[in-house]
Amino acid sequence: MDVATAFRLQNLLYDSVRAVDDGRLEDWLGYFTDDCLYRITTRENVDQGYPISLVLCTNKQMLKDRVIAIRAENVYKPHYDRHLVANVAVRAAADGAYKVEASYVVYQTDLEGATELFSTGKYDATAIAAADVPKFREMVVTVDTFAIPNHISTPI
Amino acid sequence: MTELERLTFPSADFSRVPYGVFTDPANFEREQERVFRGPVWCYVGLEVEVPNPGDFLVSYLGATQIVLVRDGDGKLGGFVNRCAHRGTQLVRATKGNARDFTCVYHQWSYDLNGNLTGIPFRRGLHGVAGMPADFDMSQHGLRRLRVESYRGVVFATLSPATEPLVDYLDTPMRAVFDRIFARPIEILGYSRQRIPANWKLYLENLRDPYHAGLLHQFSTVYGLFRATEKGGTIMDKKRRHEIHFSVHGSDRAADTADHYTKTTFYDRTQGTLGYPEIFSFIDEPGRGGKASDFMSIFPNAVFQQLANSLATRQVRPRKVDEYDLYWTYFGYADDPPAIRAKRLEQANLVGPAGFSSMEDGEVGALVQRGVAWEGDAHSIVMMGGVGPIEDQPTTLTEMPIRGFWRFYSELMGLTVEEPR
């Protein structure tokens, strides 16, 4: 893999979490393919081999509905997100796709400015770079902090 | 007067709840004794989680950690997770299989029934030191629980006075267990939430179907649950447990129009869901089209059928203003692939990120914040009527909340004003 490709895939991850941190959830959707899988699970379930997800979107419509619900219907703790993404590894996979792996930390800041650690865990993603625009075809978030502080609203 | 003595229910029908029950640390401490060590059965797990001899899992009676274990004869038992020697937490894994349990501190060991079986250097060394000669190991086992199960759902109690589990559950609740657990189940996974609120705010929330069609707007707007649908609440004789249900799509368009179009949220995004299939559910034996069926068992458990999502919810109090909500998702061992996929998909509706459940933790946190330093003020629980606590032919009611408090205040010995 050439360095330029690796950079583009790394930036795909950085740009997508930046969209969440900026509150641009509609833009965040743009980083996924139409047939994407987005899933949040926990280390507890992965270790014990259980299939449950905390969030399971098997297509982009479902991902979009999550954003609609966050904007219009769901009642949740108002907050700002801040993602720190590290240990990013990009590798070539089958079919011209790429595996993107990383660790993350998400802090949440409330409306009075107090910041707390919300979640830490890892990303296991598959991205494609058709027509030079890289997108996620699959994003599996595995949460270490599986005693979820209150609830999950905005995407990890 | 101590804080605790000031806690008084101002109405004998429990239509007003003093906020101090959510904020008073002394009350929280008394709950550990009077409720969680009192004459009640607490839900602790499912038999299918400990299928083989030696299988164990760590669970809770209130804030107290316990271990549920299947012994060598296949019988269920349990004990407080504390070494009898110096009080060390004995079992550290959350679940597993063991032949015996050994404390890390001084290697005291216990069999699967909690009997003390080994003390290193019990006789000392070369006749020096050791335990007293008359130290009776048979008198120093782990603190054992009474454990009973109904239809594979396991409950525990520390009180010798607790009535048999079948009587405790009462007829309507047993009928729900008979239906939900009619076939062998399979665990699909777990989730946990740590919620900054008093644990009883969650139990109030689940006995309050009034909120469901108003707070959970995703379900309401897109039609999984509306207060205008046919539904109802059913309680046990003592009004401590509660079931509420709703029948999907059973409301009249005119009612929905009259009552919901006046709210600010209804119809705002109607019809714009990209994947409305999230709500479609496959009717299952005995449900009769009921989209939601929620059963709360005093003090700590909820059993849920929401569309095709099945789960148990266990409340684990931690501090006066913090509890863990522990979800166990399950399906049936013989689920066809389509219905299994539906259960996994509809887990989106519940749990920490649930379309129809993320709000419940949040409103608890909001109440906790709202009632701080106002222990003498009280809430109003009158929707559905005051006076006698009865079953209701509607979900527009908070009445089961009053049943919860009636039983709770009896256990706790809290003061109730005489009717005027």
Outline the structure in words:
- The complex is a heterodimer of chains A (156) and B (420).
- By secondary structure, chain A is an alpha+beta fold.
- Chain A has helices at 3-21, 25-29, 43-48, 60-72; strands at 32-42, 55-57, 80-92, 98-109, 115-128, 135-143, 147-149.
- In chain A, strands 2-1-6-5-4-3 form a 6-stranded mixed beta sheet.
- Chain A is globular and about 45 Å long.
- Chain A starts with a helix and ends in a 7-residue tail after the last strand.
- In chain A, 36% of the residues are buried.
- Chain B is an alpha+beta fold and 420 residues long.
- Chain B has 2 domains: 50-148, Rieske Iron-sulfur Protein (3-layer Sandwich); 170-412, Naphthalene 1,2-dioxygenase Alpha Subunit, Chain A, domain 1 (Alpha-Beta Complex).
- Chain B has helices at 3-6, 20-23, 25-34, 165-169, 171-180, 199-206, 209-215, 217-222, 253-260, 337-346, 358-371, 399-412; strands spanning 8-9, 16-18, 42-46, 55-61, 64-70, 76-80, 95-97, 101-102, 109-110, 116-118, 146-150, 153-157, 185-195, 231-235, 242-247, 290-297, 301-306, 309-319, 322-332, 378-380, 415-416.
- Chain B has a 7-stranded antiparallel beta sheet, with helices on both faces.
- The longest helix of chain B has 14 residues, at 358-371.
- The radius of gyration of chain B is 23 Å and the shape is globular.
- The A-B interface holds A 40, 42, 44-45, 48, 50-62, 64-65, 68-69, 72-77, 146-153 and B 94-95, 187-196, 215, 217-218, 221, 265, 268-269, 272-275, 278, 324, 329, 344-345, 347-348, 351-353, 355, 358-359, 361-363, 365.
